[in-house]
Records
---
Amino acid sequence: MSQAETTRRIGVALLGSSFMGRAHSRGLDAVRTLEDHPAAVPALRAICGRDQKKLDGMRDRYGWERTSTDWRALVEDPEIEVFDNAASNHLHAEPTIAAARAGKHVICEKPLGRDAAETRKMLEAVETAGVLHMCAFNYRFLPAIRFARELIERGDIGAPRQFRSRFLLGSGAVPGEAETAWRLRRETAGSGVVGDLLAHHVDVARYLVGEFTAVGGATRTWGPQRAGVEVDVEDAVVATVEFASGAIGTMEAARVLPGQVLESAVAIDGSEGSVTFDVRSPNELTFADARGSTTISVTAPEHPFAELWWPRGHGIGWGDSFSHELRHFLGAVAGAWEVAPHGATFLDGLRCAEVCDAVLAAATSGHRTEI
Ligand SMILES: NC(=O)c1ccc[n+]([C@@H]2O[C@H](COP(=O)([O-])OP(=O)(O)OC[C@H]3O[C@@H](n4cnc5c(N)ncnc54)[C@H](O)[C@@H]3O)[C@@H](O)[C@H]2O)c1
């Protein structure tokens, strides 16, 4: 990791002040204090949302210099070098494209667009503008996922043969809990659990196993009315997947299961061994082969991101992946490293969107869909 000679101070604007607005604000805040000599630190120039009271609280808590309820006021600001979009899905494309055209480097929450067509427009805009771009797939910045990639790259599990993932939530089944209305409508969200949850694991699968070639799928909407709106997106999905490497797999995601608080688990079985991860134990990776199974505490000095944190065994939390992710993007803007391969670029966001669209198409047609 870096011991930069000089630290670049990079002006950041953040769109979004709720769940992800907090996660990104906290992540940016931590970037300022993680290292003695960071490649870059953020200057928290402006935060934008709809609720002025909430924005005032975010300003007081994290030190945002100013607040705005109009994202258009931010994209032309010469003091802002990075535009960080953590708003709801229908506000990803337009502000991100406007920011890129104004010369800002852009990082945007997943799913990038509401479908592959919208995502492609975002990719074209950043490529035309020549700005750096990253899709905020934070799982790549969990130490155990990064370590899984190291194990796979050095051949510990052999050739990947099977991939399994489950992203199961109960929030939609608990009245008054986390569900926000925009997530339940195609117009604002694009899709339901496919873009919201499955997309995370599609990206993890691409990061660890490689490109998808075909999918099958089934979806269900348990609706009908939640958070004051008619639900018109899928609440559950089960998919079969095939990879260019020859590996196959199954993926499922759901968010209206009262018996599930949060399970987000990934397993890869290879010709020599297997790795298993669940975000409920974010510092652990289980490795197994014919000799048995061992759960590795991914907190030793030689493990990914460990030098930023505590002595062996103490571990970090899910929220800290946002610090790693934002540190990575700011470091790339400062020229310390490239966004890829560890950061997901907008091209990765597009590849993920193509897989998500194919799962939805397969569910509608009832046929296996090639990508
Ligand atoms: N990486 C992750 O683990 C993760 C987790 C949750 C959500 N997300 C993604 O983050 C994004 C935000 O999700 P969330 O859970 O924070 O949603 P949320 O409903 O909690 O927040 C949405 C935010 O968008 C803002 N917003 C909406 N319309 C606006 C407007 N016209 N002007 C200004 N601000 C506006 C709201 O003020 C709010 O701050 C989504 O794209 C979601 O898919 C990612």
Note: The chain has two domains: 8-138, 139-312+342-370.
---
Amino acid sequence: MEIRSGLHRIECPIGERYVAIYVVVGSKSILIVDTGFDDSIRTTVANYFKSNNLSLSKVGYVINTHSDYDHTGGNRAVRELMPNALICAGERDRPMIESLDRMFYDRYNEFEKEHGFAESMAAKDFMMSVAFESNIDIGFSGNERIDLGDRYVEILHTPGHSWGHVSVLDEKTNAVIIGDAVLGNSVLLANGDPAFPPTYRFVEAYRSTIRLLKGYQPSEILTSHYPRYVEQAAIDFLDLSLNYTDLIEKICLEVISTAKKPIGMMELIESAHERMGPWPDPAYKYLAYPVLGHLEILLGYKKIKASKDENGLIKYQLAV
Ligand SMILES: [Zn+2]
């Protein structure tokens, strides 16, 4: 639907969830934020353009907010259906967006060797059946400004969920399209129920992104998997997200302090997930992303120390 003048939000179904794709329309050029799954572009977005008299050949820019396949899976369809589109992403996410194989092994499977939490090959097969990669034309570092004709957008570097995550500020409305840059206290299903934990990974970058977005005093925050957060609701969502990081860090330190022996990351999650959120098995295991992020912070500040067991798995204990 057209939520503001020339700013559209298209909810594309992905299983029990949706990914919201945004369209910003200028007098010369159209910009799209995120590409969903292959079918999101070929069916949902293509149909939406048709019924709203928007031209696919006017699309000049397609931005991937970050390297997750529910945000980049339609990139090949963009190449086929939008011949004038430049595909753009944060430079640090480029390698994983250009290669789904790399996305799978470097991002989704980073916990296998040292933490014993592996993605299944069925998950990889599914990804490969709904997402198709393309090269990236432009790698952003942040603060670029794009002229769409009587309308400018600004690219913000908003790391945390990934290192290269970018958001798009629409100067005309002061709405910020943030993809998954900020994730509240749970990712949601389409019906609003909790789906899985907020999968931020780089904690200090994530906290700094939340503070940065707050500083823009956005008229609204437009995410990929949540309803619109307008005015005060946007600030509340940012505050909730920031407070959640403090809660998780506190719980991690408490569990390590009270453990009788050095404890692995997945053991920590098993014993504490009910205090972190309401997710069922196996969804709660994706706490691996934020929990590892917080363990890295606690290690950095030398509040805890790490060692490896005979299987090469990392165990954590208090530093004193
Ligand atoms: Zn997402």
Note: Residues 25 and 158 are 23 Å apart (CA to CA).
---
Amino acid sequence: MTIVEPRRLSDKDTTIPGRPPRPLHSRRPAQASQRRHRPGRRPRRWAADAFLAAAAAGFGTVLGEVITAETRRSLSAPGGLLIAGGRLAGFSGAYFMLIMVLLIARVGWLERAVGQDSLVRWHRRVAPWALGLITAHVVLVTLGYAQSSQTGALRQFWVFLSSYPDILAATAGFGLLAMVAVTSVRIARKRLKYETWWVVHLYTYLALALAFAHQIATGASFVGHPLARAIWATTWASTAGLVIIYRFVLPLARNLRHQVRIERAREEAPGVYSIVCRGRRLDRLAVSGGQFFQWRFLARGLWWQAHPYSLSALPRPPLMRVTIKAVGDHSRAIARLRPGTRVLIEGPYGAFTHHAQSTDRVALIAAGVGITPVRAMLEDLPASVDVAVVVRASSPEDLVHRDEVATLVDRRGGQAYAVVGPRRTARFDARALGRLIPDLARRDVYVCGPSGFSAGVVSAALALGVPRDRIHHEAFAF
Ligand SMILES: Cc1cc2nc3c(=O)[nH]c(=O)nc-3n(C[C@H](O)[C@H](O)[C@H](O)COP(=O)(O)OP(=O)(O)OC[C@H]3O[C@@H](n4cnc5c(N)ncnc54)[C@H](O)[C@@H]3O)c2cc1C
């Protein structure tokens, strides 16, 4: 049956077919210890400002080095202005590429302060500038040298390729960057499988490595300027070091420590599975409710891809749980996973936690499997926080973890509602939201669900007077 009017989630007479409450580890109470998990690290709000300030200072230094390397004579020589402009564009573009790499290096302190979705958004914003500047570098330097040696641009380009080994490698790198750019354009991106796009993206690292030598060998700012050369080389080495530490060394160390394996899987709703995992020393894993990990299940056909899934409950060492909806290849294969399968986790990531809250009242609004981080956050919000929860689903069966949410909200003395039914009949707009939570404007609003749903709730919340900085949302796709 479809529920059009919102119901209190805990109503006993609800027409939602009830399932008996299923606490996280009900089947093995003896083995699930009462050890508490370690609370997630508090984000350092200044981290984002510090990163931006350091990035801006670095950019200023790069510009300074390139500009001061030019002389009046070099600028007034034939092609001099074009070459100088090309160098400036090249070093700026290369620097922006390093910033892009850092933004997605999953640097813990930055990630906690900003959130991975925002970092990915920043990465995408910088990308056209970086690629545009590098393209301008190729064009301007070729035209400048052609003018200087009074030859055609194509002829000059051929001279570069055939006589400068470092430039041949850099040109190959530029080709790779162009390929990455093409696959990232929205239309192409929509047609590509996520994994294909991701593998193509890995070529960016190769492209950067190929381009590095020609900067050091031929960059006018470096020839005869050992300090400038040392600063530039250190910048590159530090970026590579951070990538290696945060993307490889720390995740490897964590997995060696925790040795996570699947304990059991269970169908929670049609096509939605909970995976309970067992790990060693999970009490040492600092995580906040609402955060997610990248999960790599070491099973046939799955080991090579990692996917982001939020914890659907706080860890209860030695166990922790995710709840996954089957939407594509990876998530559909979850149902086939066997107990004992090894799992590599990377994280925790995400700023969708109680640390983002600035009032003592919150509204948690979720649709479909978007309930997972909300369910975990309900356990993690300080006891003094007043909670109102609204869960949206298209059918009663899709209300995942309904009983757990109802129990947690009841325990806190909060309110929880389900809005169930097709969008046409069960409307969930500003009016409906305002009726359910009349004091919404005085709350922090957390939203998680499909992008259309989240966008609708965000604009409804704004219309109801919630300040933008009190609206927090987790996108389930990057
Ligand atoms: C921060 C975050 C938390 C999430 N938490 C949960 C959760 O708790 N439960 C749940 O069921 N789903 C969650 N998701 C969504 C889940 O990651 C995708 O549904 C899953 O990766 C789809 O993979 P697929 O191969 O099954 O489907 P596909 O058909 O390959 O992908 C479907 C869509 O999912 C996105 N996607 C696919 N792979 C990735 C990836 N590796 N990284 C980022 N996005 C990807 C793409 O937008 C793609 O269009 C979360 C996503 C994010 C970003």
Note: The domain at 259-350 is CATH 2.40.30.10 (Elongation Factor Tu (Ef-tu); domain 3).
